[in-house]
Amino acid sequence: MNKEEIVKILNEIAVLLELAGENPFKSRAYETAARNLERTTDDIEGLVKSGEISRIPGIGEAIGKKIETLVTTGHLEYYEKLRASIPPGHLEMLKIPGLGPKKIRTLFQELKITTIGELEYACRENRLVNLKGFGRKTQENILQGIERVKHYQARRLYAEALPDALTLSSLLSEKLSIPVTIAGSLRRGAETVKDIDLLVATHNPHEVGEAFSHLEPVETVTSRGETKVSVVLRSGINSDLRIVSPEEFPYALHHFTGSKEHNTAMRARAKDRGWKMNEYGLFLGDKNIPCHSEEEIFHHLGLDYIPPELRENMGEIEAAERGQLPKLIEEGDIRGVLHIHTTFSDGSLSLEEIVRMARERGYTYIGISDHSQSAYYAGGLKREAIKEQTRLIDELNIKMAPFRIFKGIEADILPDGSLDYEEDILSAFDFVIAAVHSHFQMKEADMTERICRALRHPDTTILAHPTGRLLLSREPYEVNMATVMAEAAALGKVIELNANPYRLDISWPNLITAKKMGVKIAINPDIHDVSGFSYMSLGVKIARKGWLEREDCINCLKADEIETFFRKMKARR
DNA sequence: GCCGTTTTCGGCCCGACTGTTTTCAGTCG
Questions:
Q1: How many Å apart are A156 CA and B17 C1'?
Q2: Predicted structure pTM score
Q3: What is the CB neighbour count within 10 angstroms for residue A48?
């Protein structure tokens, strides 16, 4: 059993233990173990064999044994029994706002409720009002919660939530003439988000809460206090506004940016030093240590400033302590854009239009990569079309100099791992992007070998969207990314960070590993139409989340540098 | 269940809000 599956099982055990009414710290121990296992780059099987699995922090004797059992047998009786003891509907019921493990247990013990359907029925029959700890209001809220789960519960893409966040913050900001800051997972650059967190510093909390509740995009107010107002927007997204005093702002900004895991680790660190940390300050006894910015808070705790994207408790605190945080890539570092489709295949922009748009945006080169012949659904290029496009690019390169247009192709990786053209065609391109677009249902070992074989093709420059996932709609195909990344590292091949908001593939946790292995990354917008160029800033945000620096991304190279880079790869064939 | 320069037991981050209570439990982030 591989690492991802074990991580998933440990996390599920944590939730099941909560539902079973176990010691919450035991549940948290499984969460911690899962997280630390997930972020380790060590070979799990190797650690198990050498008896060193407990060297991973948070994994002790008991969990260590369970991991060993999973690795060697693929089963775990403890987990299976635990899962059998909890109705599957209880896991689903956790999604209803206001319902947690305790209330779900009460519902089961008193009313034998095991599914959301039964729960809805029980509410309509008015059966919750007399339960201890419940009441009329709770029953109403649960009914509403069920409605909301049915309609909106889905998480949102970052790119979908950000415009709403910007609208809300600017409306509120204009209304009150005060700054409104976006915090939470949006500030951290999460791929998908559950809600929009906003933060305001003011001495008039009531006025701010009132104004926020009546903004045009707000549909309903779900909770309203002195420091926090929660609403549901017409678009279905939840939004929380936090209101603090100007003095508290830096602490609150840090706190409400999260992540939960980062905050927990930071507060533990403060506690180690005899301090207490919360959204209102950093306290030694009753005395607040004054900080005027997030930077100062980190410095007081002996840390370099940690950019929001890194705050996931993935080693950033340790790195900040050692002064070894990466100098993260910025949008201004990007010199050129690769992976662009034109009207030759399934793009809606002509070559000339793309060149004009790229120049307007300050890029100094682009790389064209239309689909290859077997992608008939996307108008893949036949031999003649390639000739025609080559001729056109040569002309434009003369006309537009010093702007550079590199000739590339997005070649399908066929099921056997070969690429979709003869070598004489492939070797004529400046670069080749290899991509899986079909036959997703393969066994992990076969898919991994298919992709590794494509990487070994002498003409392959970049591996596109390596897991094929579509956020919130399609799971990644089964592929061992550790093996793929190791192969790319050994061969000096590039892996794409596809910046389409639905893909963001390679994922940021894998980026952290790729960087450690020395794999170079191309941040590629996979442009098909005018919106494509705007994906670059999201790509950079995710690259930052994956700890990337300018040196890690090939499209931070200047035009002549990337030309040399492509040539050197060709020379190795 | 994990962990230890407060070590093998007794902690484990912290506060707001809601709805149920009549001082607090549960949930959430």
A1: 25
A2: 0.80
A3: 17
